[in-house]
Inverse folding.
């Protein structure tokens, strides 16, 4: 059962996201000229990005490969460019590539794709972990920073031409892990 506070936070986040998406879209004139728009995964996006209901969000993002490329090329650079986010990524116990692959699988899974939720063993032997609390233990990430992290991911998705409804789903998935990520 969702508490009133949780519902307020979710609604606030939803509004924030729509504002971010609209701001980004209008900055680009609500749709950049063909060829100017950054693309997540051209082959699987045709039509579906305009919210015609086909397929899953994961499929519209290009599945695991599209999500991984989006994280590597757009989200990570934008997160690390933020002076409040970057310091949390300075004492890692795994490689940035491992983090990106594990997060891409988690997102792919939760957005309707076929990746395992967790537990995958990567080429370098790292096994993706399941416990958000353990993953983020000792980082002491404030709630406000979790929100900022999600907003930046949403901004990048908007810039990449992802439909607002799909951005909202990505935000909802990330937000669903907030409790395990913050203040650990
Ligand atoms: C909002 C939802 C978030 C999700 C779903 C998430 C998910 C993940 C995942 C899947 C990993 C890879 C761990 C593995 O499987 O081995 C990871 C690692 C990591 N995350 Fe997050 N994360 C979130 C937010 C954040 C935020 C807001 C920060 C900091 C600002 C952060 C900092 C880190 C760091 C530093 C690592 C690497 C930990 C290490 O090297 O031991 N995460 N996260």
């Amino acid at each position: 059962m969702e508490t009133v506070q949780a519902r307020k936070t979710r609604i606030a986040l939803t509004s924030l996201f729509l504002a971010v998406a609209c701001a980004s879209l209008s900055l680009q004139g609500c749709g950049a000229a063909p060829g100017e728009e950054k693309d997540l995964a051209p082959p699987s996006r045709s039509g579906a990005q305009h919210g015609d209901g086909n397929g899953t969000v994961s499929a519209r993002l290009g599945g695991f490969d599209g999500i991984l490329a989006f994280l590597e090329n757009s989200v990570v650079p934008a997160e690390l460019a933020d002076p409040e986010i970057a310091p949390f990524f300075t004492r890692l116990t795994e490689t940035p590539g491992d983090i990106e692959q594990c997060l891409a699988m988690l997102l792919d899974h939760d957005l309707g794709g076929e990746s395992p939720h967790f537990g995958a063993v990567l080429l370098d032997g790292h096994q993706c972990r399941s416990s958000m609390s353990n993953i983020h233990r000792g980082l002491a990430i404030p709630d406000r920073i979790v929100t900022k992290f999600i907003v930046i991911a949403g901004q990048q998705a908007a810039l990449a031409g992802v439909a607002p409804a799909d951005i909202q789903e990505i935000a909802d998935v990330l937000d669903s892990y907030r409790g395990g990520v913050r203040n650990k």
Remarks:
- Residues 150 and 171 are 6 Å apart (CA to CA).
- The pocket of protoporphyrin IX containing FE is lined by residues 85, 88-89, 92-94, 99, 102-103, 106, 128-129, 135-136, 139, 141, 145-146, 149-150, 174, 177, 181 (CB under 6 Å).
- DSSP finds nine helices and no strands in the chain.
- Residues 4-28+63-181 form a domain with the Globin-like fold (CATH 1.10.490.10).
